[in-house]
Amino acid sequence: MANSIGGVKAFMKAVVNSKPWLKDPLAVRKKWNEDEYNLVDHGSGKNLCFGIMWDDGCVIPQPPTRRALEMTKLALEKAGHKGI
After folding, report:
1. Within 13 Å and on the Cβ side, how many CA atoms surround 84?
2. Does the pTM of the predicted model rise above 0.85?
3. Measured between alpha carbons, how far is 3 from 9 in angstroms, rounded to an integer?
4. CB atoms near residue 81 (< 10 Å)
5. Could you give the number of structural domains in the chain?
6. CB 27, CB 21: distance < 8 Å
7. Same structural domain for residues 23 and 52?
8. Which of 10, 18, 20, 65 is a Cys-bridge partner for 27, taking CB atoms 3.0 to 4.6 Å apart?
9. Which of 41, 39, 32 is nearest to 9 (CA)?
10. Which residues are within 8 A (CB) of 61 and not within 5 positions of it... i.e. 6 or more apart?
């Protein structure tokens, strides 16, 4: 858990830089790449498309969760992204 995207980035960068594949052979062998993090090959994060799974056919989210998903979709669309 983190209270900012910077905190998530710092945590993930620390995990990747610790080379977890040396302890777990099933871990992906991938070094941190700042260009990939910044989505350089994908328009630098502009006009992204996000898939939202409203339910999985077995579990239907409670109304507060559904409302949070709808609010997230609206925020993404307001920022210029697409939610499907």
Report:
1. 6
2. no
3. 11
4. 15
5. 2
6. yes
7. no
8. 20
9. 32
10. 54, 55, 69
